Amino acid sequence: MDKEERSVEEELRRHRLYRFLVPVVLLILVLTAAAIYWFFVLRNGFSRADLVGKYEASEKGPASYSSFAGGFLRYSRDGVSFLDVDGQEKWNTSFSMEQPRLVLHGDYGAIADISGRRVVVFSGNGLSGTYSTNADILGIAVSAGGLTAIALDKDLTSLIQLYDATGKRLDIEMSFEMSMSGYPLAMALSPDGAGLVISFVNSSIGSLNSQIAFYNFSVGKSEPDRLIGFFRYEGQLLPQVDYLGAGRVVAVGDSSLEFFSLAQENKPVLIKSIPLPSEISVYEAGNGHAAFLYSDPSTGKMTLNVYDTEGELNFMAETSGSFRSLVLAEKGVLFLSDTGLSYRDYKGRVRYSGSPAQTGSVMFMDGARKIIQFDGSYMYHYRLR
Fold first, then answer.
1. Neighbours of 5 (CB within 10 A)
2. How far apart are CA 188 and CA 186, in angstroms?
3. Angle subtended at Cα 367 by Cα 381 and Cα 305, rounded to the nearest 5 degrees
4. In 3D, which of 235, 152, 156, 246 has the Cα closest to residue 197?
């Protein structure tokens, strides 16, 4: 091998070594950064919530906010609008409702005028459909695909009608005599829209009694009224039901939190019943969790309990001050009172505890480190550090 060939061979070896070392060094740097981040942040939490942005989000009169589709909904009796994370309005829809009720599920949401007859359905991209019912609305549920189920008051009968995302009525209707089944107090649709759960209350025998009824429009086609199972509860109301996922349902009552499994699509099973304290002040469900806040009569202190889809307790934590906001975010629980703000992961570890710079009581999480706050006129961004 002459000198020139040896030089070429040496250059090739250096090139191969370079190609090998560069990714190895990059991997080491990434792993080191991840270890540092875990040690100083994930392990020990955040020490500051720095105000990093302020955006105008003025509203026309009183309005409510909800996190939705990577942004926020602002809604009132006069309409609904969608804001991005910088407070910029992306779309709006006007209407006139006396009692607007908002329901959200996945990529879709709907607002119905309770005791009225108007419904609007939308996604993050804007209005999907709108329709009017032929009787007064008692309740509404929406699936992750925009299917809506409407409970209607028809004399002494309640009707359940289904509409697609565009507002087209489907050829499915269920009828219940209120003297027999009771009043539909709450309902929820499964993510795919095939399952419907309804909480009925009946007082015809002198005391309040409830039942949670499960229906399915696919596997339940052969069953009368598509009923696939029900559970009776004497002496208590169950005013809210929620799907925590495709196969899990939670219902909250006066004295218990009920967790159901639909692992077998046509056979609902009660998997856990959690006794509730004498009086809970706040209940929330979302992101695969359910939580309630209650006061201990003996100490006067507030306690927060958070559960997973199996009804297992994620954590229990004492809180202080008067409640303002509770958010079950993707990565953890954001709790705001008049004495401060706390953020815990779903293992109960405190990630941040402190006081926000502003006084707004409406707060949301954007990812794992950004907090967004509304005070009516402005949107504030905080960065956890």
1. 9
2. 7
3. 100
4. 246
Give the whole-angstrom CA distance, residue 331 versus residue 335: 13
Q: Are 67 and 83 in contact (CB under 8 A)?
A: no
pTM of structure: 0.86
Whether the predicted pLDDT of 291 surpasses 60? yes
SS3 of 359, please? coil
Q: How far apart are CA 228 and CA 217, in angstroms?
A: 10
Residue 368 to residues 66, 93, 122, 354: CA-CA distances in angstroms?
Answer: 18, 31, 27, 16
Distances (CA, A) of 305 to 36, 178, 280: 31, 35, 11
3-state secondary structure (DSSP) of residue 11? helix
Mean pLDDT, range 360-383, rounded to an integer = 89
Q: Which residues contact 355 (CB under 8 A, 6 or more apart)?
A: 339, 340, 341
CA separation for the pair 289, 340 (Å, rounded): 23
Tokens of 301: 């202190």
DSSP 8-state symbol, 245: E
Taking only the tens place, the pLDDT of each residue in 334-348 is 999 988 999 999 999
Q: Where are the alpha helices (DSSP H) in the chain?
A: 3-37
